Amino acid sequence: MADETHVVSQLVARARAAQAVADRYDQAQTDRLCAAAAWAIMEPSRNRALAELAVHDTGLGNVADKIQKNHRKTLGLIRDLHGAKSVGVILEDVSTGITEIARAAGVVGAITPSTNPGATPANMIINAMKGRNAIILAPSPKGASTAELLLRYVHAEFDRIGAPRDLVQVLPSPVNKALTHELLRQVDLVVATGSQANIRAAYSSGTPAFGVGAGNVAVIVDASADLPLAAERIVRSKIFDNATSCSSENSVIIVDAVYDAMVSALTAQGCILLGDEQKSQLQAVMFPGGKLSPAVTARSASEIATLAGLSVATSTQVLMVNETGAGSDFPFSGEKLSPVLTVYRVADFEAATRMVSNIYAYQGAGHSVGIHAAPELADALALQIGLTLPVSRVIVNQAHCIATGGSFDNGLPFSLSMGCGTWGGNNFSDNLTYKNFLNITRIARPITTHVPDESALFADYFSFVNR
């Protein structure tokens, strides 16, 4: 432990020195930091190199989708940050006499996953820079090489604008639990995305932390839905980067009136519904001992079928299995991180919401849910879901994994880290943004005194109890 303490303390000391420089930056300089960090991953040749290295070293996902993810998520984030105030006075409220001043959190420790070893660190770095923080990455061992390459690209861009390289650092390889835990102990703020073990480590570090909940997205297909369009959206989302995203659909709950037609629509998109014997073969490979095997994580449907000894067409996009329940006795009701989709048949919309509730009682509470329905009904159904189910996001008529973390056709902020509220064991339910990397100082001035009339405030209460 002494060695880990020394290694981390040196990194943190360098980070603090660099952050002291950035702390004097004005808004324009700060925004140049963000742009430099963004261009480090968005420059096309670098983007490709990062995507190829990520797939080569982690074995997860595919290059084309990682290139698209690196580009779109970073472009969307820079759009969100453009013009946003994060330096000095960011709010003046004359009516309350309050002035808000943005201040840096300090040195951030960021745990990042192997599933998104380029896009997630880039997102963390840019958000940290927007707050004039320093950041030290703790990548997964498989994703360490990608993080190190990204770091070289970031430093090259920082050199162009004269920014301190030590604003962004990475734990030295080989990254291990002891180093990561020591980092979490020494920094000022922890942000963690990845396995629930990493999230628990972040929350138990003794350092203020933002962590994310488990994904296990369920989507409901209502009887009113445009079935071919719903199927196209679900499959497009499910196969993106071989389902590395925590926002990929894991279960689709179809109301009885359109069940057969929806399965046909999914089949037309390249899905195949397995029989009971094939499902058993797949389960044995995917869930040995009841736990999801890393051997199938982020592999293509045809690769997973081969591992399970199943004969399917090489063009097969998604393997589907029927299920009736949720919980540890129904392993397909959990997160699969692969192009395997669990299909439920339910009586109606009310039964569908009950099934989602059962699934999330097992895994995925707080994350998000999708609804596919006719536009004239979708708002009412989405509101009903939002008022009753334990979810932080309700995604309406969209490809779920593309929409949940922000998209150019919805209003959610671009992020690769989604808070799941208390339902998912988190202290926030928003998409992680630069605001989570800020401290806010508030100046309070005297205003005209206004003492409320207590009889007016308690009128409804007294009327109720004295009736």
Brief overview:
The protein has helices spanning 2-22, 27-42, 44-58, 63-81, 119-130, 144-161, 177-186, 196-203, 227-239, 259-268, 276-286, 301-307, 349-362, 375-388, 400-404, 454-457, 459-465, and strands spanning 88-93, 98-104, 107-112, 134-139, 168-170, 189-192, 209-211, 217-221, 249-255, 271-273, 318-322, 340-346, 366-372, 391-396, 438-444. With 467 residues, the protein is an alpha/beta fold.
Name a few traits of the molecule.
15 strands, single chain, 467 residues, 44% helix, Aldehyde Dehydrogenase, Chain A, domain 2, 2 domains, 5-stranded parallel β-sheet, alpha/beta
CATH architecture of the largest domain: 3-Layer(aba) Sandwich
- What is the 3D form? globular
Kindly report the oligomeric state of this protein: single chain
Number of strands: 15
Q: How many domains in all?
A: 2
Number of helices: 17
Helix content: 40-55%
Structural class: alpha/beta
Distance between the termini: 68 Å
What percent strand? Answer: 15-25%
Spatial arrangement of strands, main beta sheet: 10-11-12-9-8-13-14
